Amino acid sequence: MKIGKVPVDILKNLIIGRITTRREEVLVGSAVGEDCAVLDFGDELCVISTDPITGAVAEIGSLAIDIACNDIASNGAEPVAVMMTVLAPEGTTAEDLSQIMEDAAGAAKRINVEIMGGHTEITDVVNRVLISTVALGKHSRDAMVTTAGAQEGDVVFMTKSAGLEGTAILARDMEDKLKQYIPLEILERAKALKHQISVVPEGMIAGRVGANSMHDATEGGVLGALWELAEASGKGLRIELDNIPVLPETRAICQVFQIDPYRLISSGVMVLTVSPRRQKAMEEALSEAAIPWATLGTVTQGDRVLVKDGKTLPMNPPDVDELYKALV
Fold this sequence. Notes:
11 helices; seven-stranded mixed β-sheet; 26% strand; Phosphoribosyl-aminoimidazole Synthetase, Chain A, domain 2; alpha+beta; six-stranded mixed β-sheet; CATH 3.30.1330.10; 2 domains; 328 residues; 13 strands
């Protein structure tokens, strides 16, 4: 198989399809597009998510915290704590580990979560640092938001701009190549996008306003996240492609590598749907918090399509993220 997320048919049939034991305490379990599990703990619900960081080198510690907590925020829940497993290759120094944890601790402080445990190991199984993070959050029983909650007629929102994380990673890890084609000031702006990776603020806002569904855009980019949201909800989409914001820095880097910004890993972007009667409230709440947003289209009962220059194109399932094409 190719590098990246496994194909959807394999995920459905060979992975999720093998899970047969069910418990009544598990309110949301394994499903395509659902990044979090939800457990019934009585008065409050416990939201749990896990994510690896495999496509980045620089500042991997802070990314590990933000990416895992983003999934919690996509349920409208408050991230509370994380556990980290750090697998590092032979030759890793104490200074390397110290820097990873300094970055992780800084991110945890910024979003007020505790790193409550984990595992750290030097192993020849990996050839670069791999971090897998489990995040836990909480919310009240009546406030749960899932990827699967989109309703026909909902307005589709996204925050920030497509390809944020991929842009920051490539600007840092591929700087030597990129500086041959792109001015340094543009690369510096691209690297600074790392500070926009968290979607915890918009997740809290959208949950409070009353989003019907949320999904953070990771591998597969904005289009991958939209497709997964529709798949989880059993709905169609009609998306205006030109409504998806793309920063000039992202366009410049994607042009060098000949990759698609709409399918570039986009942590820092939240896609969400809200009923038309709550649209204005969502716009006002995001604007008040100075979070950039755009409306992309609507949820339908039909096909999942993109509209470009008046033409309708099919929206395909996510494939190998564009990041890996650039890193080869």
